[in-house]
Amino acid sequence: MFAPISALAVAVYLLLVAGLTWLNGGSFTTPSTWVVVIAALVTASGLLPLRRRMGPILERAFDRSHVELREAVENFGEELPNILDRATLAARIQETLRRVLRFRASYLLTLDRVSRRLIPQPATRRLTGTRADLPRQVAEVAFDPSEPLCRYLVEERRTFEVEISPYHPKLIPILRGAGDRLARLEAEVVLGLVHRGELLGMMTVGGKESDDFLSSEEIAWLEFIARQATVAVENTDLFEEVAHDREVKKELEVASEVQAQLVVAFRRVSLAAITTISWSCRERKSAWRSATCPEEASPPRF
To answer: Does residue 295 or residue 196 have the better pLDDT?
Structure first.
């Protein structure tokens, strides 16, 4: 990437050494120490600003894929504060990985509040805003946070690579327990979304479209994206908790209003019933007196 700048630096340095040596009357094959020092200082001071200016241009020209990856990750990070649901987060992760790193499949698994298991999260379509249905073999996948794979992600804080696990004695039992489910997800790399010792989710990444092996730099980028996704999942959880609390509070307010109305209605019904019973008792008492003491009854009017 910086080969042109390096070649230019070497050329300037040799010219300076040759010129200073000629002025000093020395030999070009064995220049003096002060000639070498001056030539090196002048070359460095002259080309360092040029490297800073030309670096981005040369990087975009000779290493465009690296630039696109960095820009995609930066755009992904800028979108995180605006992502308030897991489906949108899953869609952004898939778009970033497929567009730049050319991965065939990637899934975001988050902790379900009801079942307390890690399940794949369906992605939201950008144009329509609707959720895309997961394939059946993917939708049925679930991981318990207490199983060996999840414990490995939390305790080791390392990426689980499916390709090398059969050759690592510590990873063989993990692969045996989760191998079938990882195959359904087409996963070759599993990254844990860990926050304060708790597994908030997992990010699985399939193979590349070119069938090339993942480089250490690409795994480093995946780990960086996973760290960003961890923050995003935590934010969505907090947002969902606040929304849930507001919904519960609203339901409690409605229930309180209904209860107050029921109390008022109950009082009215009770008062009416008591009044009716009181009048009924008076009428029965008057009829009983009339039947037992006719002389007390009022005489008929003509």
So the answer is: 196
Angle ∠(101,127,74) on CA atoms, nearest 5 = 40
Which tokens hold the place of 233?
A: 């999942």
Identify the band that residue 254 occupies on the pLDDT scale cut at 50, 70 and 90: low
Q: What is the pLDDT of residues 174-194, one digit of tens each?
A: 999 999 999 999 999 999 999
Q: Which long-range contacts (CB under 8 A, 24 or more apart) does 162-171 make?
A: 162/187, 162/188, 162/189, 162/190, 163/188, 163/213
User: Are both 176 and 238 inside the same structural domain?
Assistant: yes
94 with 222, same domain? Answer: yes
Residue 245 to residue 228: CA distance in whole angstroms: 26
CA pair distance 13, 63, nearest whole angstrom: 26
Phi/psi for 159 (5° steps) reads -75, 135
Query: Which of 242, 259, 290 corresponds to the end of one domain?
Result: 242
Query: DSSP letter at 291?
Result: H
Same structural domain, 89 and 116: yes
Domain coverage including residue 18: 3-62
Listed in sequence order, the residues at least 6 apart from 193 whose beta carbon sits closer than 8 Å to its beta carbon are: 110, 199, 200, 201, 202, 203, 226, 229, 230, 233
| Angle, alpha carbons 246-248-254 (nearest 5°) | 105
